[in-house]
Predict the 3D structure of the following.
Amino acid sequence: MSQADAAFAKGLEGIIAGETTICSVEQGGLFYRGYEIHDLAKNATFDQVAFLLLEGHKPSPAELDRFKAEIRKERPIPHHVTRFLQETGPALKAGTAVPMDVLRSAVSILAHTDPDCQSVAADANLRKAKRLLAKVPTIIGQMQNVIDGRPLVAPETGGDPALDHAANLMYLMSGQKPSPEYARVVDVSLILYAEHDFNASTFTSRVIAGTLSDMHGAVTGGIAALKGPLHGGANEMAMEMLKEIMHDVGEKGIGTKAVDDWMQRAFDTKRKLMGFGHRVYKNGDHRAPILHALGRAIAEKDTRNPGGHAALQWFRLGEQVQAIMLDKKKIHPNVDFPCGLTYFTMGIPVPQYTPIFVASRVSGWCAHVMEQHANNRLIRPLSAYRGEPPRKWNA
Ligand code: SDX
């Protein structure tokens, strides 16, 4: 195909760049391998959804038990990765190293001791996908222990074998076992975050896999892409934005014109408000109301006053910001907005919100890497040249 008759769209907006059987993202609905997101959020667990994404079908009880046993066995991380996290402790505490960057580096060095690293064969890829799914939460958890100056949590087992994925992640991060209610809310957030067809980080992973490079490299690239505030990094930035508004208007300002004035100033300066808008969903993100309802339900019972205010006050502020965005800009919240509020209510450190997104999305990324390797064509689009006309160097 020549440049002349190729389609051009900045940011590949509206361009179909490939085929997939993993996920369908439409204004009409979000489906993982044919299962609708509300059905999954209500009736499935993240362990089941991760199996569905990686293996392509709903696991039987025996398959699920085997899968969970495999993941539990793979939870511990190699000593060289633990040492890296400990050596990066001072930079993490100083804020010069951020958790998303440290997670990206840790996943990259994880490859060096994975016996299947250099293979792109289907069986090797599936083994690596399970190891990454198992080890990312351990990296996140031990990193948080290093930041907080706590001893590592159960380094020899990578947590508590009696805990499922979400609960073990929270246990690793704090040394405290979460309540069943908190564990289920995190579990549903992992289901909602798991997969979303050709979003920027997944497409990044597919481009890397498309050169027949390896899964760890593809996931490392995915983490780098997800970090950006226009993508996964928005869940942290949305909470920081709400903290800024709360600081500026005060708790008494919630529900008053003070918030409208704050938002108008943001509109006047063309500020991008984090947690809002979506390239595909223009009438709302199917996932946002699901997580908002779950987060609000725990906020209504919260007695810890995260950030010095009752959790419900944070939700009231968030709901007022949402209403103004819809009224003035016709822009809906995406999943990152309720995620920030919900994780904040549960006391999860803000810089770990996007790493937790990784702990979930690694299942989608690995499914796409396997799909790309199984039916590959190098991904190499064209560009429209707008530069200088041909000229002589020694003119
Ligand atoms: C995720 O792709 C996926 O599936 C991603 C994801 C997944 O699961 O993988 O869903 C996860 O990344 C969700 C998105 C998280 N990002 C943010 O919340 C960052 C803030 N959002 C915006 O940057 C924006 O909405 C994007 C990047 C998400 C989508 O932007 P588009 O499709 O490129 O739309 P646009 O930037 O061209 O905006 C169209 C108009 C613009 O106004 P004009 O300049 O034409 O006057 O809407 C405005 C924008 O300024 N707009 C916003 C806005 N989002 C769009 N204005 C203020 N705040 C916003 N958040």
Remarks:
- The CA atoms of residues 37 and 72 lie 26 Å apart.
